[in-house]
Specification:
This protein is an alpha+beta fold. It has 5 helices and 8 strands. 22% of the residues lie in helices and 30% in strands. The model is unreliable at 1-11 (pLDDT under 50).
């Protein structure tokens, strides 16, 4: 466990061992796809850092997913967006449930929101912990053409939400695809 910078709150860090994942990996109640631009923060950055704050979300629906539904131990598909080709590159796990996004209170931050304050926070964030990097990228095109993934939100036209729920079956299928050689 460690204290999150500036919050005084303790975060939970799950040991990255097969034994720990047998315990915590089976506790995941929900599964998510979380998008990040690799030029800003990549799966390699998460692997290096171990854990990170998922800050800067400024969409109410995505904020509500983090605030109301994401729980400790939930599984995450890490998706590289705004790159060619976009796709899922690995997995992570939610290691700290939602708390106020303190960047919204910082006037020098690009995520500053004058209507948000520590007393009445408008924006939330979660912490995620690195779990794995896929052997290969599972591209958006492959997600769209794989039987069993046709209902994933990310495959739907116009679906740009940076945090999206996925089913356990979708999560497991994408993990399986990422562990194989490219088609």
């Amino acid at each position: 466990m460690k204290t999150a910078p500036g919050s005084g709150k303790v975060t939970f860090s799950i040991p990255n061992t097969p034994e720990a994942w047998q315990i915590y990996g089976t506790m995941a109640k929900r599964y998510w796809l979380m998008k990040s631009e690799p030029a800003t923060y990549s799966i390699e950055d998460l692997e290096r850092d171990g854990t990170t704050q998922w800050e800067g979300i400024r969409n109410y629906q995505a904020r509500n997913f983090m605030r109301d539904e994401m729980k400790l131990g939930d599984g995450v598909l890490f998706y590289h967006s705004s790159t060619k080709p976009p796709g899922v590159v690995g997995t992570a796990i939610v290691c700290r449930e939602s708390y106020p996004d303190h960047f919204a209170f910082d006037k020098s931050s690009g995520y500053f929101d004058a209507k948000s304050s520590p007393d009445t926070p408008r924006w939330m964030m979660v912490d995620v912990q690195y779990q794995s990097t896929f052997k290969r990228l599972v591209s958006l095109v492959e997600l769209k053409t794989t039987l069993g993934l046709e209902e994933m939100l990310v495959t739907r036209k116009g679906q740009r939400l940076s945090i999206q729920p996925v089913t356990k079956a979708e999560f497991q299928l994408v993990k399986k695809l990422g562990s194989k050689k490219a088609p």
